[in-house]
Design brief:
- Helices cover about 55% and strands about 20% of the residues.
- It has a five-stranded antiparallel β-sheet with strand order 3-4-2-1-5, covered by helices on one side.
- Strand 1 and strand 2 form a beta hairpin.
- The relative contact order is 0.11.
């Protein structure tokens, strides 16, 4: 009976399996490397894109901040212009204020009341004069309350004349000019007025 030696065949099969195993192992390593490399490239690309978007947002925010500063500057300029326009309007409205006040006082002072002094400080008026009776002063207060230009009449005092022969009483009255703001430099110094009765209508 013939004997067949199978050892060389088994060695060859074993070597072939080892070779296949090494080939598969090498292929697996190469595939794993390529996969990691591709993942790294993808994430690097995404990170780079995100960094570019972040830089774009930073640049746009800087532009918006500059625009906000410009808007704030424009608002401040607008506010200054509005204040100047308001001051000009006040100056124009108060240009004839002195004449209007004199006309209003002349029309408000009743007969029997005589003004000797008129003083204006800002929007405050001081009237000093003489009156034939308290009823005359009451009429003056009522006229001032109903006036469109004058308001807040306040009688500081009224006293009988020092001369016993005189029938006139001395008085001092405060008024406020409404509708106008006090303007710097618009104060009028004390001006003595000729004693004269009012009642001019």
């Amino acid at each position: 009976m013939a004997y067949i030696n199978l050892l060389p065949w088994r060695d060859a099969a074993r070597k072939e399996r080892q070779k296949q195993y090494l080939t598969i192992l090498t292929a697996t390593a190469i595939c794993s490397f390529l996969l990691v490399f591709l993942i790294n490239v993808v994430y690097d690309t995404r990170i780079e894109g995100q960094l570019q978007r972040n830089q774009y947002l930073i640049n746009e925010i800087a532009v918006l901040d500059q625009r906000i500063k410009d808007i704030d500057t424009l608002k401040e300029t607008k506010k200054n212009l509005q204040q100047r326009m308001s001051l000009i309007t006040q100056l124009q409205g108060s240009r004839n204020l002195g004449t209007q006040i004199m006309d209003e006082i002349a029309s408000s002072v009743p007969a029997g009341v005589y003004l000797t002094e008129l003083e204006k400080k800002g929007t405050s008026l001081l009237l000093v004069g003489k009156s034939e009776s308290n009823n005359r002063l009451s009429n003056l207060l009522r006229e001032a309350e109903e006036s469109e230009l004058l308001s807040e009449p306040y009688l500081e005092f009224i006293e009988a004349g020092k001369d016993s022969v005189s029938l006139l009483s001395n008085f001092k009255m405060h008024l406020t000019v409404k509708g106008y703001e006090a303007i710097q430099g618009a104060d009028t110094p004390t001006t003595p007025a000729k004693p004269a009765s009012g009642g001019a209508r």
